[in-house]
Amino acid sequence: MNLLQVRKGQFVYYNNELHKVYSVKTMFKQSVHLYRLRDMSQHLCFAKDIEKYQPKVSDSFIFNKKRYTLNKDRNAQVGDYILITNPDPDYLDHYSLNEIEVVASVESKGVVTTNSNGIKHSEYLLMVPGRFEYSNPIDYKDKSYSNEEYWDENDLLNDDEFSLSIGDVFKKTDIGLEAMVIAIQGDTVFLGGGFQLHQKELMDYGKWEYLYNILDNNISDE
C-alpha cells in the first residue's frame, strides 16, 4: 500500500498474517504501527509491506487467542464482541471503522458498549465464538496455511516483532499514562514511574501501546 492510503483501524495482511493498524506516524521510517489480531502483539512496518483487507460476513479469525466468526443473523447480547463495519457515530460517541467493542447493554435499536458508545444494530457484525462449516478463515493471506497448525498461543514474541530499546515510549491503555523504557534486564523491562514488567506484557496491545523512541528521528522515505 501507499502510505497515504493507510488509515487507523484498517485490517491488513503483514508477513502473511492478519493485523490491524492502530497508528500511522508519518514522521518515522517504519511509520505503520500494527497489532496482530491473534495475540495482540505489536509490530512496526513500512506501508509497502501491507495489504488491506475488509472483513465481511462469515469471515473467521483469531482475536486475542480466541476464534470468532462474523455473523449478522442475530443482534448482539450483553458480553458479546462486535466488529463495527458501518460506523455512523453521534457527536458524543467515539468509534470508527473496524473497532472491536464489548456490549454492556442492549436497547431496541442498538447496543451500548463498555466504552459508552451507542451503536445501532446496522453498524456492526457480531463476533460469534468458534468456527463454523461455512466460515471463511482469514488469519492468513495464503490459504494453504492451516490456522491451527501455525498458531501457538504461547508464541507471543516472534522474529518479525520489533525489539525493545532504551528510550521506547509506551502508553498504558487503560489510564493513558506514558512511560519510557529506562532499562532492560533479560525479559524484565523497567519503565519510568516505577513500572517493572515482563516483556510479553509490555508488547500486549491490550495493555500497552508503543508510541515512539526518543532517539528515533528517521524521516519516512515511503
Automatic annotation (TrEMBL):
Domain of life per record: Bacteria
UniProt name for this protein: Uncharacterized protein
